[in-house]
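Revision sheet: structure tokens.
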Amino acid sequence: ARGDVLSTLDVSYWLVSPELTIQNGDKVIFYAKSTGLSRLQLWINQTTSLNVGNGVINTGDFTIKLLDINPTYALPSVNPARAIPSEWTRFEGTVSSLKDPVRGRIGFRYFLQDQSPFRRSTQNPNDFDTIYTQIHRTILGLDEVSYKSVR
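Predicted:
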């Protein structure tokens, strides 16, 4: 950090599936909900590796993004129409862009990029939370994940 300017912070956490046979038209269906600062991405890896890259920009062998939920980092308490809903909500991603069927993996990524280390508190509007507090106050839930093959 320089003087009174604080650096931004990044977070990239992954949940990766077992190996699957993946082809165009297959669907990943799941339910998600969040209580705070959340962005959720759904990626395809066309190999069987577990390589999610290093750093927040690199996604390793996960090269096809199927979904990017809440890329503007809306908070449910501020902009519920743009945020990940606070109630269980169904999402669906359809596989495309593959030349042929592959043996690979799907990956869910909790992703925060260029976030301010301080943000007005959702608990007390006259106070500020650190990014650490925001993340640890957030619950991002995934449930009933299913993979529907067109075969």
